[in-house]
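Archive entry. Fields below.
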Amino acid sequence: MEVRLTDIRKHFGPVKANDGITLTVPAGTIQGVLGENGAGKSTLMKILSGFQPADSGTIELDGKAVRMRSPADAIRHGVGMLHQDPLDFPPLRVIDDLLIGAPGRIIPRRAEAVAAITRLAESLGLTIDFKAEVGSMTVGERQQLELLRLLWLGARVLILDEPTTGISAAQRQQLFDTLRRLAAQDKTVLFVSHKLEEVQELCTRVAVLRQGRLVGEALPPFHVDRLVSMMFEREVTPGERTGCSPGAPVLRLSGLGAEHGRIRFDGLDLEVHAGETIGLAGMEGSGQGLLLEACAGLTPPTCGRVRVNDVDLTGKTYRQFRRRGVAYVPATRLEDGLVPGLTLTDHFLLTERRPGLFIKREKGRRLAQERIGEFKIKGIPSDRVESLSGGNQQRLLLALVKPGAKLMLLEHPTRGLDVESVIYLWSKLKERCGQGEAIVFTSSDLDELLRYSDRILVFFAGRVFGPLDAATTTVDELGQLIGGSTADV
Amino acid sequence: MSRLRFSHRTLINLGVQLGALVLAFLLTSIILLIAGAPPFEAYKEIFQGAVGSLTNFSDVLVAWVPLLLCSAGVLVTFAAGLWNIGVEGQIVLGAVLTTWVLRLLQTTGLPPALIIVLGMLAGLIGGMLWAVLAGVLKTFGGVNEIFGGLGLNYVATAFTLWLIFGPWKRPGIGSMSGTEPFDQSLFLPTVGGLRLSLWSLALGIIAVIFVYILLEHTHAGLRLKAVGLNRRAAGLLGVPTWQYALLAFVICGALAGLAGAVQVTGVYHRLIPSISSGYGFLGLMIGMLIRYRAIWVAPVALFFAALNIGSIQLPIVLKLDSTLSGVLQGALVLFVILVEGARQRYLRRRRTAVA
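PREDICTED_STRUCTURE:
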């Protein structure tokens, strides 16, 4: 089935997630959709699969304009989406899992369904155990299950969102074979990924999105360099590191590994010195956040040791890390970082080390006032934190980190902030580096990583590259590493 | 200027709350009409029954005390974001432990005042332990405190029944009327001729003041609230979260246990099967009604106590069941929450309309 998207627009407030995207995918194509985080891939796929309506623009299937009101509506039109995390029912048996969502009668016709799905599976070279419990299967098997469900429901356009995360190499090969067979049956596959090698291997066409726009299309043979420069193209600014000379080691990781769901990394060695800034690069969910959590004692490591100021803190609690001068600042401000309902003063009172019994409001208010001034937060001590703007919430989070911390672990410290706020926050952070604090931070902004880090680690699908010297690394090199291409470095 | 706007908002709030009160009375009136009873007669009767005589009013105060203790207690667990449904069972265990200590010591010849104090302390500890059990189940066993509390309530009731019909049964026969009453020397002293004990009244008032100060003026209270409002963020800001959640259970359980102790030493002078009289659930309702602001505990609890006592006369005078007070209380809570929800929705819509 041919898919034609015309001038698709979707705005979230001031953010133009899709800014007039026009794309035609012929039937029988495996179309790669590339782009960095926030480029608009997911939004476009959600619009095509009926999860959310576009603000404007048209979708045509085989030349017929359609309007998708819901995912169920989309599948009736023949468009099915395979999500990154399988949307299935782990406690159910396979057969019942498959029957959910089938246009039903009161009593499901199991035998019919089993026969139809078995035929389908055989035609794709897959085997299926209808009696197994979904929860006991691997992610790869559940993916096959979802694929079969969508095909059985009549999907002729399949959207796959990062389908190879967390599945084995053999399962990946099987998935690719299946997709090729489907394409040969004239079905259309949209393959959303940031893994350049996979796109190169599998896709017959590639579209690259950047900042909500389609910035280029390519046919094989693909040139990784060109794809990368399309994905990340921007003005390259020279690094302007403060050049503070690093002091004694603050954080020492040896052979560290951690695991959370499908995200994991292993055998990481790193030494972070006082006054140093380490940037963690990589696509969302490649393990950077997990490393920060492991360094803060929020996730117990699966192997290796964590030493802070030469004290082995492996397996200790977050509070013990905190007492040793480790500060952790999460990315989601109102979910993880701040307490909605409490005022700015309350927050400063909460972080007092030896608070005593009764609250000294006046003292707390003065402390809050002082920090508000120092971090230029727009707000007064008696404001509730949820009334602050995102940028001011971020400033507050940093203001809550006590001066004299040894190591600051920052998750996306400037995400969603305007340029002035970013520059201001980094000037405050660099001030602290000058006083001997070390920083480890994650970011998806390549410029920020290159500009403010001394060294950079790159995470890709459980592997860690580096550390790279930020002063001699270019945006292109960093972009290729994030996309998993190691050829040139 | 800002002061003016503030008072304007307070007025609207007050109007909204009064509206809820009117709606609750309206609904109850409709129910009364369906039951074929004259609503105004019934309300007048409740009013008379509550404040018609000194005896009646002192009975209201007697019912006020356990309500004060329980509502103050659940405010602490609410602050920590916990639904301590098990508060009923905590009252019962407090009553059981008080009875146990009084039975144990009543023949020892210790001074009665000392025995009463020890009995009260035992009650406090009993409620506390029962609450900690629910808290530990929640913290380390992953059992939601609502289910844990509910289960423990049934266990507590079964335990009392077993005691009353088993080991602690009256000489000869066990009976639903409870265990053998204590000697009069072990009764909490009351005000001449009335059933009201100034000691228990003082306990109730002190409990409310204690909780008010705890929640409004101490670091521990602020941390409890932080844990309740956003557990993860509180943890990241350095608050030991599960420890504070357990602390909330400890405080609430202690106050509920004290309520049980007061019921034994000051009201029934023995252990009876339904010693908690539903005061725990009523305390939860009050907590929801006042939306967790400690300053309102005393007046609202007094109002609820007055409804309870005032409706006792209804069966005799109007052939109505005395559970009418429960209908009114329930309707009140529902409407206050409903009206508040509607107000929030309205404000949100207006805010998005402006933005």
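CURATOR_NOTE: Residues 2-34 of chain B form the longest helix (33 residues).
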